[in-house]
């Protein structure tokens, strides 16, 4: 991952992470998912990254528009 991309969301649930990515992309914020789950034991998280230029807007969208937690 390039240095200008930062984590804005992480969760072990792939569906939730895909929803977050889709909502960000609908708001014209490019997002990338990185799978950091162990394939054998299934622990770890999926992480959503956005470019640092979009981090404030992405964080606001995740906190205010998505009610997962």
Describe the structure.
With about 70 residues, the protein is an alpha+beta fold. It has one domain (about 5-65): 2-Layer Sandwich (Alpha-Beta Plaits). It has helices at about 15-25, 55-65, and strands at about 5-10, 30-35, 45-50. The termini are far apart.
Question: Which spans have pLDDT < 50 for at least 5 consecutive residues?
Answer: none
CATH architectural arrangement? 2-Layer Sandwich
What general form does the structure show? globular
Strand percent estimate: 25-35%
* CA-atom Rg in angstroms: 12 Å
What is the arithmetic mean of pLDDT? 89
Name of the CATH homologous superfamily: UreE, C-terminal domain
* Class from secondary-structure proportions: alpha+beta
Tally of structural domains:
1
Biggest sheet statistics:
3 strands, antiparallel
CATH-defined fold name: Alpha-Beta Plaits
Q: Count the DSSP helices.
A: 2
CATH class: Alpha Beta
Number of strands: 3
- Order of helical and strand elements: EHEEH
The N- and C-terminal alpha carbons lie at a distance of: 26 Å
How helix-rich are the residues, as a percent range? Answer: 25-40%
Largest sheet, spatial ordering of strands: 1-3-2
Write the layout of secondary structure elements.
Elements lengths: L4 E7 L2 H13 L4 E5 L10 E6 L3 H11 L4
Antiparallel strand pairs: 1-3, 2-3
Summarize the structure.
The chain has 69 residues and is an alpha+beta fold. 35% of the residues lie in helices and 26% in strands.
């Amino acid at each position: 991952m390039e240095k200008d991309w930062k984590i804005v969301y992480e969760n072990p649930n792939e569906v939730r992470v895909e929803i977050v990515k889709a909502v960000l992309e609908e708001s014209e914020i490019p997002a990338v998912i990185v799978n950091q789950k162990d394939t054998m034991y299934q622990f770890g998280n999926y992480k959503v990254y956005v470019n640092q230029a979009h981090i404030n807007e992405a964080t606001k969208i995740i906190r205010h528009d998505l009610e997962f937690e």
